[in-house]
Amino acid sequence: MGTKRYAQMCAVAAALDLVGERWTLLIIRDLTTGPKRYNQLLEETLVGIGPNLLAARLQMLTEHGVIQREPVSGDGRGVQYRLTASGEALRPVIIGLASWGLTHISSYEQDGLVRSEWGRLALEAMISVGPPPEVDEAYEFRIGDEVFHVRCEEHTARVVDGTPPDEPALVVTADPETFIRIGTEQIGILDAMLSGNLTVSGDTTSLTRCLRLLDLELTSKAPPAEAHADVS
């Protein structure tokens, strides 16, 4: 499959020559959460991409050293794709796009496909903005079928897969759609709790620190929907 190039001596253009075509960055997004098989990408996370196009994108990324093929442990014939060191270097780009995109979901694909693992990316995007807490603690998030936590220590915060080794100061449970709607400020935390779509357990001071880290408030900052006059 031929690929158009920008033919510019510019680092941005050179990067877009490799990852700027449709679906390419979404493939990288999905591999930031772990290795995936071809069928996982085709049938679960990249719904709408054609099989030939996915194969072409994977081949191109492999040839340029962004991803690599590897056997699936315990499956003699299975193959999966994972990011190389070069691909991992794109993680801050993906997180940066997620941070920027959180302000646009409300006016775009708010009713589209949503997956639990994308909640992890949203969380990484949110903690890249707020100031880290001044105390060492962990906040556990149970989003759909995914469990991860924010580890705060030595004035830094990072997202880690699984439950924390010690007792978390806070446990947050939500479905993926609710969690992302909270992150995009389409719904307030209190409203989500009252609706039963969000539960939070832990002490109030830890909740306050977590909200500050994620740059969130208990109530939504989104303006209320405009009322429409009845002209009938």
Task: Give a description of the structure.
This protein is α+β, with helices and mostly antiparallel strands and 232 residues long. 39% of the residues lie in helices and 21% in strands. It has ten helices and eight strands. It has helices at 11-19, 24-31, 38-45, 51-63, 85-88, 91-101, 116-127, 176-183, 189-194, 204-214; strands at residues 36-37, 67-72, 75-83, 137-143, 146-153, 156-161, 170-174, 198-202. The strands form two sheets. Strands 6-5-4-7-8 form a five-stranded mixed beta sheet. It has a three-stranded antiparallel beta sheet with strand order 1-3-2. Strand 2 and strand 3 (75-83) form a beta hairpin. Helix 6 (91-101) crosses helix 7 (116-127) and helix 7 (116-127) packs parallel to helix 8. The longest helix is centred in the N-terminal third of the chain and has 13 residues, at 51-63. The termini are far apart. Keywords: DNA-binding, Transcription, Transcription regulation. One of its GO terms (molecular function) is DNA binding. Residues 10-109 form the HTH hxlR-type domain. This is HxlR family transcriptional regulator.
